[in-house]
């Protein structure tokens, strides 16, 4: 009776682990999250040949091209909705050789039918990204200051970026528009009695544009998804992981000062489809997938190993070996589609590699040992 009970528990463990594997295999292949990146760079979006089709960086997009850049981006990922980034002689989002360029804006989520009045303010080696509820730019609803180890220079190209060349997949979706862009640059005063002041050097509300490129003033990589909407007088974007490089830029008349400047704009989000976050056919969060399926199976199988250490049951050994092999299969996560965000606190890859592999090896060896004992006792 005890043996049948232990076998039943092992069957349950095998069933739970099998559900885990199926759910993981059927999880969405995210590759990347849908996003919209807005900033100013020292190069245009068409100057990097490596990010063109068949180029070295096509799968990772123009953001991998070496440049100076100050930007912010909105993403569909659940715990990184808005991010402040910069680069100096490095890829767009990655700071320089000494510093990471990213800071997450606190206490803010990207939402459908929401307007974000956004301001980028550079002041020497610091730049601040602030989000506001209205055009007064008075009380931010979220703000973050990025202290740069080196200052990006020769910034002249207003850049909008969406996706890179990753294969088409479900990374969520962001549909919206950009409007009411204003850039203020510092004008140095030769009079020592007066401090420098910021003057409006660029303003665009797209009201005078009659086509998608505004008579060629805007360079578009994908005008089907990323273009000037002449009916609504704004810059429309439809961001999803489309398998294409979706970039646009406008070249300013002059290089911005490296001392101080401000860019303000209205970012309107019409619709957001959240990232699937590695969920499979059971629609369970990957962290809870571990807790519901893997953790009970580990605890139960270890308990059975303790209570059955004197048993020489052939069937018990077979079931333990099967469960051990399933655990080993899970531990080699690179062989199974795994779309779990690396930002999750309980990192699925580490969980699998460290815990599940050890348990899998133990159960496989322990089950094999029981099979060997059974065969040996039958021979004699």
Short description:
The protein has 380 residues and is an alpha+beta fold. The chain has 4 helices and 15 strands.
Instruction: Determine the CATH topology of the largest domain.
Output: Jelly Rolls
How far is the first residue's CA from the last residue's CA? 26 Å
Task: Label the overall shape.
Answer: elongated
Largest sheet: 8 strands, antiparallel
Q: Secondary-structure element sequence?
A: HEEEEEEEEEEEEEEEHHH
If you compute it from the alpha carbons, what radius of gyration comes out, rounded to the nearest whole angstrom?
Answer: 28 Å
Number of strands: 15
Query: Helix share of residues?
Result: 25-40%
Q: Would you tell me the overall average pLDDT? A: 79
Description:
This protein has four helices and 15 strands. It has about 375 residues and is an alpha+beta fold. It has two domains: about 1-25 and about 280-380; about 35-275, Jelly Rolls (Sandwich). The strands form two sheets. Strands 5, 6, 7, 9, 10, 12, 13 and 15 form an eight-stranded antiparallel sheet that branches. Helix 3 (about 315-330) runs antiparallel to helix 4 (about 350-380). The radius of gyration is 28 Å and the shape is elongated. The relative contact order is 0.18. Mean pLDDT is about 80; it is low at about 335-350.
């Amino acid at each position: 009776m005890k043996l049948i009970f232990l076998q039943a528990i092992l069957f349950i463990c095998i069933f739970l682990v099998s559900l885990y594997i199926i759910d993981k295999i059927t999880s969405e292949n995210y590759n990347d999250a849908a996003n919209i990146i807005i900033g100013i760079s020292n190069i245009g979006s068409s100057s990097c040949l490596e990010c063109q089709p068949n180029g070295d960086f096509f799968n990772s997009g123009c953001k991998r091209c070496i440049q100076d850049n100050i930007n912010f981006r909105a993403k569909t990922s659940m715990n990184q909705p808005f991010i402040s980034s910069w680069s100096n002689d490095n890829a767009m989002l990655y700071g320089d050789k000494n510093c990471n360029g990213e800071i997450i804006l606190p206490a803010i989520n990207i939402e459908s039918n929401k307007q974000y009045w956004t301001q980028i303010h550079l002041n020497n080696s610091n730049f601040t990204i602030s989000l506001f509820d209205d055009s007064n730019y008075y009380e931010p609803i979220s703000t973050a200051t990025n202290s740069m180890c080196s200052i990006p220079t020769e910034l002249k190209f207003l850049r909008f970026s969406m996706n890179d060349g990753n294969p088409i997949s479900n990374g969520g979706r962001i549909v919206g528009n950009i409007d009411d862009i204003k850039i203020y640059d510092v004008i140095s005063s030769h009079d020592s009695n007066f401090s420098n002041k910021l003057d409006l050097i660029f303003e665009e509300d797209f009201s005078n544009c009659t086509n998608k490129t505004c008579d060629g003033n805007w360079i578009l990589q994908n005008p089907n998804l990323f273009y000037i909407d002449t009916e609504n007088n704004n810059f429309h974007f439809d961001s999803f992981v489309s398998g294409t490089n979706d970039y646009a830029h406008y070249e300013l008349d002059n290089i911005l000062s490296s001392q101080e400047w401000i860019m303000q704009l209205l970012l309107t989000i019409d619709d957001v489809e959240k990232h699937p976050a590695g969920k499979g056919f059971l629609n369970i969060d990957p962290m809870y997938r571990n807790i519901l399926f893997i953790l009970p199976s580990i605890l139960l199988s270890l308990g059975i190993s303790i209570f059955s250490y004197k048993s020489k049951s052939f069937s018990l050994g077979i079931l333990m070996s099967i469960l051990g092999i399933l655990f080993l299969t899970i531990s080699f996560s690179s062989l199974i589609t795994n779309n779990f965000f690396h930002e999750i606190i309980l990192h699925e890859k580490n969980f699998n590699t460290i815990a599940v592999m050890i348990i899998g090896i133990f159960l496989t060896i322990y089950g094999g040992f029981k099979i060997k004992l059974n065969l040996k006792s039958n021979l004699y």
